[in-house]
Design goal:
The protein is mainly alpha-helical. Strands 1-2 form a two-stranded antiparallel sheet. A hairpin with a 5-residue loop joins strand 1 and strand 2. Helix 1 runs antiparallel to helix 2. The chain starts with 7 loop residues before the first helix and ends in a 23-residue tail after the last strand.
Length: 92
């Protein structure tokens, strides 16, 4: 029987545990490298799950019951995730 893949939250908690352990600074070099590599692997897996969730949520229903396509406006870091994200935008 195949083991079940850990949830996003479980993987995130594991990554946080690795980061906390490494931040203590008293980890032998070999162990630190191994944990760092595991952290990178977890980070990539978490990013893939977030990307998948973003694609799933790419189509949302507005207040009128109409489907709206998610359009990422820009990678402008000054936006800080706020403002109009393209939902229900009348501009094409």
């Amino acid at each position: 029987m195949a083991s079940q893949e850990p949830s996003f939250e479980e993987q995130l908690a594991q990554l946080q545990q690795i980061v906390n352990h490494l931040e203590q600074g008293n980890v032998p070099l070999e162990e630190a490298l191994t944990q760092f590599q595991e952290g990178i692997k977890l980070s990539k897996e978490l990013q893939a799950k977030l990307t998948s969730a973003e694609k799933t949520l790419g189509h949302l229903i507005d207040d009128n019951g109409d489907e709206q396509v998610y359009e990422k406006q820009s990678d402008d870091p000054s936006n800080n995730g706020g403002g109009n994200r393209g939902f229900g935008s009348e501009e094409d």
